[in-house]
Amino acid sequence: MKVKDQQKASDLFSATLRLTERVGLAGLKMSLIAKEAKLASGTIYVYFSSKEALLNELYRKLKTDSVQRLKIDHTQTSFKIALKKVWQESLSYRNENQKETIFMSQFRNSPFITESNKTIGNLYLTDLENFLNKG
C-alpha cells in the first residue's frame, strides 16, 4: 500500500475549497479536484474513497478548527464584553477564511453530510446558545 503524503491531502483540500468557491458543491468532480491540485486523477483515491469521503473529511477538519478558534470564554469578563469579543472573532474568522466559510455553509445543507459531522457542526451552536442563555 502506498504511503500517504499529508501535503497531497492538504493540496486536495485547498483545491476543493477553491473549486467550491467557483463552481459550488454540485459542480465538484473528483477529476476536477485532482486537476486543480495538480495531481493525477487516480491519486485522489489513494487519499479518499469517494467525493463524499473527501468532503466530509474536509468539513470535519474545518469545523473542528473553527470551533476551537471561536471557543467562547465568558468566565473572565462581563457578558457585554464577552458578546462583543464573540461577535468580533466570528466576523474576523469569516473575513480571513472566506473559502472555508463558503464551503462549510454549502456543505452543512448538502445531502453529503454525515450524522457525525452534523454533530460537530452543532458544537459551536450549542456553546453559543448556552452563552446567550446565561446573558
Total helical segments: 7
Spatial gap, N to C terminus: 54 Å
Element-by-element helix/strand order: HHHHHHH
Spans where pLDDT lies below 50 across 5 or more residues: none
Largest sheet: none
How many extended strands? 0
What is the rounded Rg?
A: 17 Å
Q: Tell me the overall shape.
A: elongated
Helix-residue proportion: over 70%
Structural class call reads mainly alpha
Mean pLDDT: 89
* Residues in β-strands, percent: under 5%
Would you mind describing this structure in some detail?
The chain has 135 residues and is mostly helical. 72% of the residues lie in helices and 0% in strands. It has 7 helices and no strands.
How would the blueprint of this fold be written?
Blueprint: H1 6-23, H2 30-36, H3 44-47, H4 51-69, H5 79-96, H6 98-108, H7 115-134
Summarize the structure.
Helix content is 72%, strand content 0%. It contains seven helices and no strands.
Essential attributes:
135 residues; mainly alpha; 7 helices
